[in-house]
Design a protein that fits this description.
Strand content: 15-25%
Distance between the termini: 22 Å
Bound molecules: zinc ion
Number of domains: 2
Number of helices: 10
Largest sheet: 5 strands, antiparallel
Structural class: alpha+beta
Radius of gyration: 20 Å
CATH class of the largest domain: Mainly Alpha
Helix content: 25-40%
Length: 304
């Protein structure tokens, strides 16, 4: 699932191409995509694109004075910049946002269509889609520590819960915890002040470093090839490969359709976190599926 660094770079590419342009038309191919009825799409069409924002893992852009178009890419949604009026060909192309300068095409691979488009009115509408997690790059360390310890969660859960921390998912939480040399199963209220500080610093460093890398990779072009598994990641998606810090083999904990990767050498004092033992230990405090956490807000709103 595209996470904070991917979304930041997507938004920069959109801003460079769409800012001040008129959204001529929205073409929607998949009946599952649009999750709102009011404001209707026609209120966005014909308006100038004015502003761009990230809301958790969602991308938002404002058409005219108050209509926000909010895209949640979920796991397999991707954006592409095509020539004007590009055909929506193939099963994966689910929508196009047409401008005179080009078409922003949304694709989603796979049969499960989970990506969503929601239209809302004004700042209040936008806020209603925000699960409320702290903005990790704009939060001072004290406020972060307080929110982290407000409930006793595993670090994996705390970092990936959009109600606690905004924009971090399975991939970057693995990278951050490895950078901070902390176990994904460590409990937030058991951490020392030094460990909390180290976690805070690692969040800053890992996210900023990846934003810079992805910017370089895009090189002013539209960011294609967005993936959760990147060359250069230390642990995520590298089960069985050597840890770049200590050389030990990267381990995994599997749950539902996901897995967490960590280095026992660097993060758990050499201890392996066995899947079954871990689930006993943690009870329900493990992200069962990240989509479930992501859709929390939408469920609460009755799927509107
Ligand atoms: Zn290691």
């Amino acid at each position: 699932m595209p996470e904070l660094p991917d979304i930041v770079v997507y938004l920069e590419a959109l801003e460079a191409r769409l800012s001040g342009r008129t959204l001529d038309r929205v073409r929607i191919q998949s009946p599952f995509l649009l999750r709102s009825v009011d404001p209707p799409l026609c209120e966005a069409e014909g308006r100038t694109i004015r502003e761009f924002r990230r809301v958790g893992k969602r991308l938002a852009f404002r058409a005219g004075e108050e209509v926000w178009l909010v895209l949640h890419l979920m796991i397999a949604g991707r954006l592409h910049w095509k020539k004007p009026g590009a055909a929506l060909s193939g099963r994966n192309a689910i929508a196009a946002f047409d401008f005179d300068s080009g078409s922003l095409v949304l694709t989603e691979a796979g049969s499960q269509k989970r990506a969503s488009l929601t239209l809302v009115r004004g700042d209040a509408g936008l806020q209603s889609l925000d699960p409320g997690g702290l903005e990790p790059l704009d939060t001072p360390p004290e406020a972060f520590a307080e929110r982290l310890r407000a409930a006793n969660h595993t670090l994996k859960r705390a970092l990936t819960d959009p109600r606690i921390c905004s924009g971090i998912g399975n991939a970057y939480s693995d990278e951050i915890l490895h950078h901070a040399m902390l176990s994904p199963a460590a409990l937030t209220r058991k951490l020392s002040d030094t460990e909390v500080r180290r976690l805070y610093e690692s969040i800053q460093e890992v996210l900023r470093d990846w934003i810079a890398r992805l910017r370089r990779e895009a090189g002013g072009g539209f960011p294609e090839g967005v993936t959760a598994f990147r060359e250069g990641m230390a642990v995520h998606g590298r089960h069985g490969e050597p840890c770049p810090r200590c050389g030990a083999r990267i381990q995994r904990i599997r749950y539902a359709s996901n897995e967490t990767n960590y280095c026992a050498g660097c993060q758990t004092g050499g201890k392996l976190l066995a899947d079954r033992a871990l689930s006993r230990l943690l009870g329900r405090d493990w992200p069962r599926t990240l989509e479930e956490l992501e859709s929390y807000k939408e469920q609460r709103q009755g799927g509107a």
